[in-house]
Amino acid sequence: xxxxxxxxxxxxxxxxxxxxxxxxxxxxxxxxxxxxxxxxxxxxxxxxxxxxxxxxxxxxxxxxxxxxxxxxxxxxxxxxxxxxxxxxxxxxxxxxxxxxxxxxxxxxxxxxxxxxxxxxxxxxxxxxxxxxxxxxxxxxxxxxxxxxxxxxxxxxxxxx
Length: 160
What we know:
Blueprint: H1 13-43, H2 49-76, H3 85-91, H4 103-130, H5 134-157
């Protein structure tokens, strides 16, 4: 993404670019996971309907709110945040759901999605830490906590 203006915050432009690009991937993963979670909320059925419907609503709401925080950090670094379904879909490591899975398969897909975002965030954390970019590192730490906790909670539903 092109830099939007001259900025001097103590992080060289090339490192800000790398962090921004990485945060763009976190943004894309979050966007695709948001869409999947919201779609599962709409379409879940079965004996766990009420529990999953409400849980998915809490999760997609959190993901939706996270999109702004991530995009605004990219902007604070001086770069344009990627947007649009096609662009974000190409940047994301998470694939959209291609079908309407059964309730527990939805849960499994969401576990995988949250773990994928955690892996992406952890990879970018290394860049932020090496560049002494505490705000990005803090944002990534918060995202890691949320995605790892959500994956654990969803995974718990799959245990016998």
